[in-house]
Amino acid sequence: MTYAAKSKALENPVIVVGGGLMGVSTLHALTESGIEAVLLEARSGVAEETSFANGGMQTPSMPDPWNGPGVGKHLLQSLFDPKSPMKLRWKAIPGLTPWGLKFLRNSSPTRHQATTMANYTLAAYSTELTEQARVDYDLKYAAANKGTLKIFESDEAMASPLRLARMLEGKGLEFKKLTTEETLDVEPQLYAIRDRLTGALQFPNDKTGDAHQFSKTLAVSAQEKGGKIKTETTVTKILVENGKVSGVEVLTGEVIRGKAVIVATGVLPSRLLAPLGLKIDIAPAKGYSFTVDATVLGNDCPHVPVIDDAMHAAVVPLGKRLRFVGTAEFAGRNTTIDKVRVENLQALFMRVYPHLAEKIDLSTGTAWTGLRPMSADGRPTIGPTPVAGLWMNIGHGHLGWTNAMGAAKLLVDQFKDETPDIDPAPFLYDR
Fold first, then answer.
1. Buried b (16+ CB within 10 A) or exposed e, 316-339
2. pLDDT per residue of the chain (431 residues) written in tens, 0 to 9
3. What is the gyration radius of the CA atoms in the chain, in angstroms?
4. Which residues of 370-407 are buried (b: 16+ CB within 10 A; e: fewer)?
5. How many CA within 13 A on the CB side of residue 97?
6. Which residues pair with 330 in a beta bridge?
7. Phi-psi category of residue 381: left, alpha or beta, with phi > 0 → left and psi -120 to 50 → alpha
8. Can you give the three-state secondary structure of 69-94, one letter per residue?
């Protein structure tokens, strides 16, 4: 995709570093507010890393961070189980130790619940803003959108997710507890496993779509409002003069001046922030997707994302495609595709839709992996830093697309010194 620059250069813009969902959404929010801004992205286009082939869902129903009570035991067991939904690699342990200790410390019931509630407020707010924006992101799929389904094979398996849903109901979450027959009414293609199902939870306000398409469309919209996008531009240093940010230096040695810098760089913020004395506890959590052409299914193609809570995975319809997504792997910054992890996702599809799996040639599918920026306490950081003129919008983990529009608006409201629609306190740098 080409991002054409207008002839007139911006004299003193806000500089957004990073062209993923967070960066593009932030650029869009700035230009919506009439603020001159330029986005700098190292790749040749926007949303080509973590946002490229992600889960395709906006899920305010899933605000709970992955460091739930008891997570330490699960991670330890995963060292010896290649098929574990949340997998810790031996080689990653040394580099993850400082972050990991904080990750475990924040897994106490009290801290985990507080983060879940804060995350839900942001996620619900953001999903509403995304809907209002009417951005083309869902391949003409919205008319059939019935939210998401979490399916269960026993009442015991449903118990914990049901408690979470009921807790969030007081904050505004809408959900329905469905019987097996009601589940089949929502997604008839589950009939092949009806004897195994005990029911489902339906979340009607969750959304489905193509996050990569969303990002590209939003980037064009931001440009139409005067925003600039410079791709193949790697920022190597944030410049500070007299205690205030003055711009950035890029790989070619060029200096780009600006009145403020917003870091939205996914899993790599520390290389820019550490030289300024700023500490951010973010680690890469590797996720996978496998996308297949579902044209052969015709009218039998599923039309509702089906989530297997125990596997941290889902089967997501995207127009004429099906995407199997999920799992979490702590393997450092390794982006090599692991065959076993992909096979896990394929096995999920075959288990949920055995009759459809017989019709699709999985050898023609496309595997992908991306690194989610996972904060140690499970919350993103959105707002100013102790360095004047330096801002952050990072650490959204598995809620990247879910949070994108809301996080951008929350940041820009603070930047303009206006009262935000939601409380920024849970997401500030010094929380």
1. bbbeebbbbbbbbbbbbebeeebe
2. 444 444 466 889 999 999 999 999 999 999 999 999 999 999 999 999 888 878 889 999 999 999 999 999 989 999 999 888 889 999 999 999 999 999 999 999 999 999 999 999 999 999 999 988 877 665 444 445 689 999 999 999 999 999 999 999 999 999 999 999 999 999 999 999 999 999 999 999 999 988 998 999 999 999 999 999 999 999 999 999 999 999 999 999 999 999 999 999 988 889 999 999 999 999 999 999 999 999 999 999 999 999 988 778 999 999 889 999 998 899 998 899 999 999 999 999 999 999 999 999 999 999 999 999 999 999 999 999 999 999 999 999 999 999 999 999 999 999 999 999 999 999 999 99
3. 21
4. bbbbbbbbbbbbbbbbebebbbbbbbbbbbbbbbbbbb
5. 5
6. 88
7. beta
8. CCHHHHHHHHCCCCCCCEEECHHHHH
Pairing of strands 366-375, 148-152: unpaired
Helix (H, G, I), strand (E, B) or coil at 246: strand
Give the phi and the psi of residue 76 in degrees, each rounded to 5: -60, -45
Q: Can you tell me the distance from the alpha carbon of 380 to that of 427, in angstroms, rounded to the nearest whole number?
A: 6
Q: In whole angstroms, what is the distance from residue 27 CA to residue 264 CA?
A: 10
Compute CA 406 distance to the chain's CA centroid, rounded to the nearest angstrom.
13
What tokens appear for 184 in the block?
Answer: 């089949």
User: Do residues 259 and 322 make contact, with C-beta atoms less than 8 angstroms apart?
Assistant: no
Question: Among candidates 93, 52, 78, which has minimal Cα distance to 327?
Answer: 78
Structure tokens at 185: 């009414």
Distance of alpha carbon 216 from alpha carbon 266, whole angstroms: 17
User: Which distant-in-sequence residues (6+ apart) come within 8 Å of 363 by Cβ?
Assistant: none
Strands of the sheet containing 255-257, edge to edge, are 235-241, 244-250, 255-257
d(CA 141, CA 286): 28
Q: Which backbone phi and psi does 242 adopt, to 5 degrees?
A: 55, 40
